[in-house]
## 1
Amino acid sequence: MAVKTDPEEKLYERLDRALKKYKGKPGVLIAALQEAQEIFGYLPRKVMIQVANRLTIPLSEVYSVVSFYSLFSTVPTGKHRLEVCLGTACYVQGAEELLRELQDLCGTEPGKSAPESPFSISTTRCVGACGAAPIVKIGEELHGEMTPEKLPSLLEELVKE
Amino acid sequence: MSTLLGELTRERVRPETEHRLLVCGGIPCSSKGCREVKESLDDELRRRGIAAEIPVEIVGCIGDCSLGPAIIVYPEGILYQKLTPDDARTIVREHLVGGRVVEALLHRDPRSDEILRQRETMPFYCGQTRLVLRNCGVISAHIDDYLKYRGYAALARALTEMSPQEVIGEVKASGLRGRGGGGFPTGRKWKLVRETPADEKFVICNADEGDPGAFMDRNILEGDPHSIIEGMLIAGYATGARRGYIYVRAEYPIAVHRCREAIRQARRKKLLGENILEKGFSFDLEIRTGAGAFVCGEETALISSLHGTRGDPEPRPPFPAQKGLWGKPTLINNVETLANIPLIILHGAGRFVELGPEGSPGTKVFALAGKVRHTGLVEVPLGTTLRQIIYDIGGGIPGDKRFKAAQTGGPSGGCLGEESLDRPMDYDSLRRAGSIIGSGGLIVMDEDSCMVDLARFYLDFNQDESCGKCTPCRIGSKRMLELLQGITGGRGEEGDLERLEQLALLMKNSSLCGLGRTAPNPLLSTLRIFRDEYLAHIRERRCPAGACRALSRQQGSTEEGTRAEAETVDR
Ligand SMILES: Cc1cc2nc3c(=O)[nH]c(=O)nc-3n(C[C@H](O)[C@H](O)[C@H](O)COP(=O)(O)O)c2cc1C
Ligand code: FES
């Protein structure tokens, strides 16, 4: 707390430390990017460049991996990450209805970064809780047997926290 | 003889004699508040000063997700269901302190109105043959528990009494077929890896579980991770591999955590590492996580992903068994396939083939979900009928609605209609019906589900997940999706169905990997069984199930009206 450093600079230092263990090893790009995303919350261009440089991998290859896997995001996410499961079990139990309602309530939609909204919405394909479908995932928490009616109070609670 | 080996070769499943609480920590229960229930149990036990005597353990999925949050109280094996934190306090006060079972919190069978105390007496369970799921919801994921239930005894048997060839012989004799979707004979694959000469070989556990709507692999990884490690160890011994990887999808963080813990425990007991059980066999394991790409469940794409690149599939042959990870012979097996291995080695192939029909021996775990009363994992001998699974075990369709179809095999599979209710569920019989067992996803749909929209849903999925490497899949899936969006959006035209069929055939025959080759299946099977429903969408601008928002349910709405509506709603 006492020493004041640019928080962003600190993140890049952390990234550098994290990347050390991957250097020179084969097959580590995905793991390295996962760790980078954990540090920054998403993967801005500058971070991808740093990963490419440190691992001596062409930036084009880093980008091709980032764009391939849906888990990597190149846009920042809102404070509260809401994910609607659109796997089959959830879909059959009305997940699309949930998604529509959630978009209306939050005023944003999947893949969009809406700086004015505290929420970002994304969709996922089955979180493995099909027995309690439909599922809305908030951060790391799963909420089962969701209904459009339950959504407003859920969001209210989030904002309160 | 090492002391651990001595212990492992002894028969020992200890009956439950002490009070012990198992809290279902399966994901559906977690999503309904099982953690709060556990906290409340812990708290009340502490308050009464009996926390030290009565352990509370989180276990893998107990089974029937519709009853969650659920707990089991040992030694009686009483199952309490749909609990709130307050209910948890009541159970401590009444049952554990007072010795009186709390009737109000037991499950009441809606059909017979009978109160059912033990999980084993419930129709959902007694219709099942839980072998692969033997430990799920019964023991914790800790190695000590696994050892108590004859864990690693199969490994001990393989290392002490059997040559690698004999292990492969036993697996071959069992007739076990891959549970990951392809149904390839496991023993044959092992033999191929064994017989391909190389200085290094690998074993990979495919835990990518890509079918959205399947969750059996997740449950095994979370509830019984040691059975997978044991299966992989035996596979390594048989094939001559010394290294293994578990490739888990990133959406399963708890599974990753449990597996990491399990690997650590196994290393500490020297069941992983050098010179295991002092038999000269060495093997170790690592976990790798995916990053959200369905195609990575396909074995060649999975290997690309393990190489750290885009998960692009490669043409086969060469098969991974010949040329896989880093160009070396690589055995890839699914989680459930591997979980069967210790059972086969311990009890013998003879016992295994007693279950299921010829050509499809053993059990299969189905992930029962959708419009059915009891959802959850159902393990039955292959060859059990759809009716038995949905009605006897699953309790039928809620709200007295009519069964319409069951979808099996996920995005690569197809639908089974009413006429298939009495069809035995096994590899060959489902293939004849135009579907596949796949990884075991089983989604039930009732009269309110629209089959055209379901086909659109799966094509949307496959189009989205297509890696784009080959043209038939990249463009074909896109064009098919557009046609289906047109039909569900009220813009279908005469000839659309024929165009779809043509595209489907093209994709099936010319795509590079299984994703593209099977992507048209959900469409083709619904088209075969529910062609009238497609035609109603196109000719009458009507969705008989009332699910497509751009279309009316009733007949007779003017074309103009639907068109206008379609334009506003279509995305
Ligand atoms: C598009 C596609 C997705 C697949 N996804 C999975 C999966 O998620 N899990 C799995 O075990 N097998 C999956 N497979 C099958 C694997 O390619 C491979 O056959 C399987 O892992 C072999 O293991 P088994 O013989 O034990 O079934 C998929 C295949 C295709 C074509
Ligand atoms: S389909 Fe949503 S959790 Fe499986």
## 2
Amino acid sequence: MALVELREIRKTYHLGGETIHALDGVTLDVQAGDFTSIIGPSGSGKSTLMHILGCLDSPTSGSMSLDGVNIHDATPRELAKIRGEKIGFVFQFFNLLPKLNVAQNVELPLIYQGISSRSRKEKSMHALKLVGLEDRAKHRPSQLSGGQQQRVAIARALVNDPRIIFADEPTGNLDSHTGEMILETFCKLHQEGRTIMLVTHDPEIAALTPQKIEIRDGKIALDVDAKLAGKESRFKLRGSPEPNP
Amino acid sequence: MNLLNAIFIGLKDIWAHKFRTLLTMFGIVLGVSSLVAMAAVITGMEKGMKESMIAMGGLDKIRIDDEDVPAWQDHLKTQAPGRLIRDVEALQASAPLITTISPEMRLDWRATRVTRQGKSASTSEIVGVWPAVLEMNLYEVAHGRFFCDLDEEFANSVCVIGTGVRDQLFGSPEEEGQEVVPLGQIIQIGGQPFTIVGMFKHYESEQERKLKELAKKQAQEDSGGVKRQRGWSGAKKWGDAFWRKNNVVYMPLNTAWIKFRAASNDDLTPDPRLTDIDIKIADLDLLEPALQQARNVMLVTHNGINDFEFDTQENQINDIRTRIRNMRISQGVIAGLSLLVGGIGIMNIMLASINERIREIGTCKAVGASSEAIFTQIIVESIAVAMLGAVVGLGFSFLLVELIEIASPAQNSPIITAYPMLIAVGFSGLVGVVAGLFPALKAAGLHPIQALRYE
Ligand SMILES: Nc1ncnc2c1ncn2[C@@H]1O[C@H](COP(=O)(O)OP(=O)(O)O)[C@@H](O)[C@H]1O
Ligand SMILES: [Mg+2]
């Protein structure tokens, strides 16, 4: 059984008489250990898919299971618990809380799980070490650069040891050099065996990941591997996995 | 999520907006401090009133007062006799339910100066009395004697004074360093010589006694140094019930009549009217029949003209109670309004702050915060602001009470009690809950995605 299974997921928005099919029958499996990029033009439904995968939103129809749990009949409370325990989320705009310091931001998911402050401290320091920011624990988010803030956000996504990490255009708000460092971090995490899904509209980033899914108008396009085949990435990452032939 | 963390995150936000929070809290601070301080003032007043009530005589004391004749007797007004010694004698003879009767003939204390060797004393009253006054007004003769029947019979020029008068004419024990008992000394009352035959006990409130002891202790502690005027001056609180009690000059009723009232009225006509008739009855349960008896007797002596009324201490106490209740109500309304305004302020600020933080709330939800956790977080924050306000308000109320005491030291000092404090704090908590409820529900009900996408 796959870690994530989506079957015929549809998400429909009604905007003043007009019906928008943000997702139009998406079926896909994600295996544990996959590093998948979701690529597609703006407005194609990538974020909508990520939100449904991340249990932040519920589909209009279709079924989904994550780690063996049926998501479509979970209560909001159970969804919150799943988000807190099994999922790590990284946003394009970092979404750090400005009033908390770096360590407290990283601890946030653990706070809502009611984990003791001592083990919270340990775990957050560990996560900060993974992204190389352990010396910034007492800083405010506003005192960090964009790349550092995103690494704090990654640490926050890691701190609860999630089954899967979702990142929605994590480099979209960073310059290409900083973006490269973020991607490097993701590659490293993948090599450590983590399951990661990453949204991008940049084919060169997608070319770095072993698995790729292309979305067009809310549907999965099937020829993505063929299209990206032979495409040289401008990113030369240390220890980046060999792109699939 | 446990409560402690909710409080932590909530307080973090309060701290981030110190000034704003302070302004928000102001209503609560005002409400709490006014509630506690006013309750303290009222408690102090109540205590003072009770004390002075007891000082002025017991509950079973009834005054017979002058009263305007009723409308239907208006044409008889000029024939109304007023209260005379005749009434007293009639009551003694014909109203057996009355056990004690004490007539008083007060002299005009402005016209009648009490002096000795150029020193003059301000007095609360200069009255001609019967010995029954001791029981009636709860006086105790500490030195010497009270008047006897012969003093009354011969209208002797003798008087019994309170310690306050002694202090003014002969010096107080604090100043002299020893008890001063001026028995046998002569003083001038309205220019006529009177012999002091007795002096009353010194009366003081509990608070005064304590202050006095404190002053004494302090004086002892720095004895040996330069001798300074360390005397305790609180006894001169003019107008206070105990001051009044200590500054009386009593003389036999007959003396007051013969030596003053018989010829020294403004127009030099005799004025035999009594200023007071106080009675005591055997049993408070027999109050109604006793009053009826007295009324019947008095109607006979007054030729049926109803120019008197009975004023029981019960009435006065009820008066006081009503006044205190009214004060309580107005105080409660003020405090309640302040707390209400405070609550609205808190709700307003909470709504504003969650609007600012919608994206943050979305983030919290994305990392696993349930709606309940968000709800708790907001409501705790609201309660924390309210409670912080309450604590500041409590501190403020002590300051307020201190100020009131400095502003009017002659009044009964306010007494802060625990009960209004508990009520105030409890009520503030409630205000916090109510004010936070709507914002908390709003925040908890946010959809994670809508919150995250909020601009
Ligand atoms: N809350 C919403 N209400 C209406 N339409 C929406 C809403 N969210 C997304 N959409 C629409 O759904 C489509 C997919 O959006 P999205 O998933 O954000 O695209 P992407 O992330 O690929 O750029 C877009 O056409 C967008 O306008
Ligand atoms: Mg998007």
